[in-house]
Amino acid sequence: MCELFGISSEQQIPVNDLLREFYSHSVRHPNGWGLATFCGGTASIEKEPVQASNSAYLRERLSDTIQASTLLAHIRLATVGSIAYSNCHPFVQQDSCSRCWVLIHNGTIFHGSGLAPYQSLQQGKTDSERILLYLVDQVNQRQAATGHPLDAAERFQLLDLLLSDLSLGNKLNLMLYDGERLYVHCNYANSLYVCEQDGAAVFCTVPLQAGHWKPLPFTTLCAYQNGRLVLAGQPHGHAYVDNPENMSFLLAAQANL
Fold first, then answer.
1. Is 134 helix (H, G, I), strand (E, B) or coil?
2. In what order do the strands lie in the sheet with 33-39?
3. How is 36-87 classified by DSSP, letter by letter?
4. Which of 91, 208, 238, 252 is the most buried (most CB within 10 A)?
């Protein structure tokens, strides 16, 4: 599976050591890496379809001090979609009110999710990119219906409903940033953790060495802002559990890469 890393902090913090440790996991996830940093409402996306630990660009990038209050990072083990730049995370999409949304995902969409119509709109071939296109389209539809940009509470309510439905039968660990809040969701047991200390929340698929890590609330959408949990939905209970049919699909997909 892929691995996710994210930060929400009230102040900018140095992240080089955290990123170096996270990207060292790429030995087991060699099919691409990505990094999203943010300045105001603008996202800066850097990614390559190569193993992170073998990337000269990333090595040079981490040689300079990086400080961030919000950050997303990803290492990819390809399942759906070939090893290509267009299939590397993070993915970014702007909604109808010019809000920038950025997503990283660990998982696979197996069952009827309504994502098929977005295949013709995406740049790559991943179901992860389709998730983002679907979510932003739903936001656009709701904004058109209400006649105004959705506020933070309305965005959370909509995402909570959409991700609950999308989780049924699907593996849906993700982080999604809307320029204001970082949404985090996990429905695969023991595969996403959070470390909260000194006004910062750090998220990772596999706990890093430093800090006190605890599992993220399970099957529950959580919204963080400035390093603090500001909203949590009700647990929807749609836990994903590996099964022979889905594992066969994944093995066949990897064999065809």
1. helix
2. 42-48, 33-39, 67-75, 3-14, 200-204, 193-197, 214-215
3. EEEETTEEEEEEESS-GGG-HHHHHHTTS--EEEEEEEEE---SSS-SSGGG
4. 91
> What is the model's pLDDT at position 80?
75
CATH number, domain containing residue 22: 3.60.20.10
Q: Is the pLDDT of residue 255 over 60?
A: no
Sorted by sequence, the CB contacts under 8 Å of residue 160 that are 6+ apart come out as 221, 233
Kindly list the distances between the CA atom of residue 204 and the CA atoms of 6, 18, 89, 134, in Å, as whole numbers in the listed order. 7, 10, 15, 25
CA angle 192, 94, 136 (to 5 degrees): 60
Contact 227, 10 (CB under 8 A): yes
pLDDT in tens, 7-42: 999 999 999 999 999 999 999 999 999 999 998 778
3-class secondary structure, 119:
coil
Per-residue tokens: 136: 């932003």
Question: Which residue's structure tokens are 């709701």?
Answer: 142
Which position has the higher pLDDT, 137 or 248?
137
Could you tell me the residue range of the domain that residue 69 belongs to?
Answer: 3-255
Q: What are the residue numbers of the active site?
A: 2
Domain total for the chain?
Answer: 1
Q: Answer whether 0.90 is exceeded by the pTM.
A: yes
Question: CB 120: neighbour CB atoms within 10 A?
Answer: 6
The predicted pLDDT at position 243 comes to: 82
Rounded Cα distance between 257 and 131, Å, is 21
